[in-house]
Write a structure and sequence with these properties.
Elements (H helix, E strand, L loop, with lengths): L1 H7 L3 H22 L8 E8 L20 E7 L5 E7 L3 H13 L6 E4 L8 H7 L20 H23 L10 H4 L9 H11 L18
Parallel strand pairs: 1-4
Antiparallel strand pairs: 1-2, 2-3
Helix pairs in contact: 2-5, 2-7, 3-4
């Protein structure tokens, strides 16, 4: 982010706001359009750890466990589509929320392959067999880890925004070399390869009107 700020000559706050806006737009589009995926799918689920917390000691002089921020991803093996992604801790609650979100996006119960996800053999497996149970499962955001301080929250928010933006670009803008089309096209969710102008339009569509002062100072009039 700082290298972009230096290269473009803009404030780091401008870059940070753009990332947040882009991440929010990406998540909204993915939640709305990566849905009702047809046919029985072979879904592979995995998780990776990422550093998003500072290592400063806590008030009780014990360092925060940095291994509680995980990125979960579910990929359709045929279309290479990212069906769902979630950033959370490695608890059973987060795993169950992730599996439930995967199930809600598919029309047919998939063939599921997991990489040692917690809870996928109990609550997760039950959710795949019984889609109605997914309605009672917390939404993916509820699986987020607790974040006690503002600096840590801001850092985690940037990580989540980056993951959502990457998933949108991967699904809709990047032609997969093995498919010669985007994953969204291969899955039957889109007909065209999207570009960065399309991404910018998504961000602008969600942006509010610019704030304007209620009163304007007349030209040539100065207050003491």
């Amino acid at each position: 982010m700082r290298s972009i700020s230096r290269a473009d000559g803009v404030s780091i706050n401008t870059v940070a706001k753009l990332l947040n806006d882009a991440g929010a737009a990406a998540k909204a589009y993915l939640d709305e359009h990566v849905r009702r995926i047809p046919h029985r799918r072979r879904i592979e689920c995995s998780q990776t750890w990422a550093f998003s917390y500072p290592t400063a000691e806590q008030p009780n002089n014990t360092p925060r466990d940095t291994e509680d921020t995980w990125t979960f991803a579910a990929i359709d093996m045929n279309s290479k589509l990212i069906v769902s992604c979630l950033v959370g801790d490695n608890s059973r609650k987060a795993n169950a929320a992730f599996i439930a979100d995967v199930r809600r996006r598919l029309k047919v119960t998939p063939e599921l392959s997991t990489d040692g996800l917690r809870g996928n053999h109990d609550s997760g497996g039950d959710l795949l067999d019984n889609p109605h149970r997914g309605d009672d499962t917390p939404k993916p955001d509820s699986g987020m880890p607790d974040v006690p301080s503002n600096p840590e929250k801001r850092r985690l928010e940037k990580h989540v925004a980056m993951i959502n933006l990457y998933a949108l670009h991967y699904n809709y803008c990047r032609v997969h070399p093995a498919l010669a089309v985007t994953p969204a096209m291969a899955a039957g969710l889109d007909d065209d390869v999207r570009d960065l102008t399309w991404l910018v339009d998504l961000i602008n569509a969600r942006a509010g009107k610019p704030n304007r002062p209620k009163t304007y100072r007349k030209r040539g009039v100065h207050s003491n």
